[in-house]
Amino acid sequence: MNQASADYKKESKKVINKLLIASTFINLALTIIKYVLGKWIGNVALQADALHSSLDVLSSVIVFSAMFFSYIKSEKFPFGLYKLENIASSFVSLLIILTAFEIGYSLFEKREPVHTSVLNQIIVAIVLFFIVILMYLYSKYEKKIGTQYSSSGLVSDAEHIKSDLFSIFIIICSIIFSIFGLNIDKYVAIVIVVMILHSGFELLKNSTLALLDINVDKKTIEAIKQEISQFEHVNEITSIKGRKSGRFMLLEIIVKLDIASFEEAHKLSSQIEQRIYEKFPNVDNVIVHYEPIEKKIVKICIPQTKNEQISEDFSNSNSFLIIDYDLSRKKILNKQQKPNDFLELKEKKGIQIALYLVKEGVDIIVTTKHIENTGPYFVFKTHNKKFYVVENVQIDNLEELLKNISNKIYVKQTGEE
User: Fold this and answer.
1) Please, what is the average pLDDT of the chain?
2) How many other CB atoms sit within 10 Å of the CB of residue 350?
3) Between vectors from CA 117 to CA 111 and to CA 123, what angle results, nearest 5°?
4) Are 31 and 57 in contact (CB under 8 A)?
5) Among the four 41, 142, 145, 339, which has the fewest Cβ within 10 Å?
6) Model-level pTM?
7) How are the residues of the chain apportioned to helix, strand and coil, as percentages rounded to the nearest 5?
8) pLDDT, tens digit, for every residue of 304-341?
9) Residues with Cβ < 8 Å from 53, sequence gap 6 or more?
10) pLDDT at position 108
């Protein structure tokens, strides 16, 4: 994890904890206000809703506790306890569903008529109406922050607050309709129950899928692919697997790199990881596995003497036979005889030849054991080139030699798959 990701985690933790603490005190204040107003006008439904709000205080405490302990990492839990947030979100979603059933059940209860003045009822309705507006704005803000930081716990808390507002809204309707002698609050309640149930089941579904390690959404995967594709030597993105753990993502990516050197490939994969941490700060851990491109057509180089035998003195080879060969079909596609233009060099002749052949895109060098532990040998090794060592320098049958190379190299590649 880089500094940008660490800063994101620190900032998000601070913001989310503040909101959850605020939610706890807001629910506590709602409990008191509902109970006092219910007592004042003798509204049993409002007093019962005050009891429900007291349970919301417990809900907020549970979500806050889950978020607080989710950051802990240990030897037993090296990836942290982020899924505590998903568990808390599941718990809150069940409470939301329970709220819907409570409202639905209340429709069949007989309510005692309110024995208080119309003025008092209007005052209570106005106070509750302002509470609904303020709480709606707060829940909307909390959900926005929860979405911004991918916090399922915060989103579920916001949805829970919204579901409570519906129950208050029903009480306001019942107060107003009772003043005018109407009895249509039950029909309003039915619509609200359906809305709350939909919200609760959506939250339960999302939190359950996260607990079951569902892959990250397609939009995020596409955005990650776009970032990786910007690197020059990425030939193919084989797979992107990820899972949600709380509000963080854990990713495993496999790419094919057009790089011969393992050192360069490792360096590039580290750069890809850093880019992902920077662009997607809610990624807690990412591992990039790199694979070489599995070539079906390779360039084979045979250093030759004047007599067109395999040269035992690589640096002083007369020429280089470069063959484009189809490994799977065992077929020669192209042949070129390249002269050794470095014969006149006094120093580092073999190294210059090796660098030239690397630039030409040679994959396999046919050689004798004499090349081992020489300058050219280490150049080829550094660029991950393969050697096919022969004992007989006489080329009796080129096709047979290439078939032997094909059997060794191609079978090895398919076996590694």
Assistant:
1) 81
2) 20
3) 90
4) yes
5) 339
6) 0.56
7) 60, 15, 25
8) 999 888 988 898 999 999 999 988 788 899 999 999 99
9) 27, 30, 31, 34, 164
10) 65
